[in-house]
Amino acid sequence: xxxxxxxxxxxxxxxxxxxxxxxxxxxxxxxxxxxxxxxxxxxxxxxxxxxxxxxxxxxxxxxxxxxxxxxxxxxxxxxxxxxxxxxxxxxxxxxxxxxxxxxxxxxxxxxxxxxxxxxxxxxxxxxxxxxxxxxxxxxxxxxxxxxxxxxxxxxxxxxxxxxxxxxxxxxxxxxxxxxxxxxxxxxxxxxxxxxxxxxxxxxxxxxxxxxxxxxxxxxxxxxxxxxxxxxxxxxxxxxxxxxxxxxxxxxxxxxxxxxxxxxxxxxxxxxxxxxxxxxxxxxxxxxxxxxxxxxxxxxxxxxxx
Length: 305
Ligand SMILES: Nc1ncnc2c1ncn2[C@@H]1O[C@H](COP(=O)(O)OP(=O)(O)OP(=O)(O)O)[C@@H](O)[C@H]1O
Ligand SMILES: [Mg+2]
Known about the structure:
By secondary structure, the protein is an alpha/beta fold. The protein has eleven helices and six strands. Helix 6 links the parallel strand 3 (about 150-155) and strand 4 (about 180-185).
């Protein structure tokens, strides 16, 4: 276990993009900027951003995409889809589809394995090792044009074949100018050994600022404290919980028995653990290692490998 500290030639520059407005997250953004700078320097990186539902993983991936595009990198996105968890290679297909016209640039056996995997040619079920090598070669081929950032969200819903291949690729990255950054509610056995950063709730003053941005009019300090305690700084909860409260509740106290939004609270929003995730307790705050350590310069997320 170690802090993630990467030597990069380009110092952290303040975010100037337009689409993503993140409150707090200085440490996380710095980590992503360092990752991007390393990839632009010809190195490769993998990182798993993990944390509970609504904590802001996708928001951070959006930040990364925007920064990467602004810096002239190529960005390709894929995400686990709950309804496609049983379809082998469904998420890998999302990731590779934009590059299939480059297949003939990789070694023939790898080319054949990927063609068969995606149903472009018929043949025996390819060896997953060969599929992994093929994806690595394909991403390296694409990154020869410009640094490539692969963004894979909702890892907890990846089909297990895709998860296995993507983890294989992430572990073998070297100096291809490729970044693979994952967002996940859980840490999975397949992703063992890859650098991880735990995304936590916003720090108190930032949670107050986000709450202040959605609550109109005066709020009883007791109510505000109750909301802050209830949400634990979770941005989704901060944005949604006050919406169900009446003006009276804002004034007089008590959150009206409302608790965190269902997406965060209800374990039913998460899938039953597939084979890939079995053995892990899936749910609010699960999968987060208690022994995690902080990323360099960060103050609310923790990084480890
Ligand atoms: N730092 C932040 N500042 C302001 N808003 C934020 C921040 N982080 C997240 N949000 C907002 O909170 C909501 C939830 O964030 P997001 O969708 O990124 O969570 P998530 O971790 O990806 O959740 P899930 O596991 O359900 O996919 C979004 O509306 C997002 O815009
Ligand atoms: Mg998300």
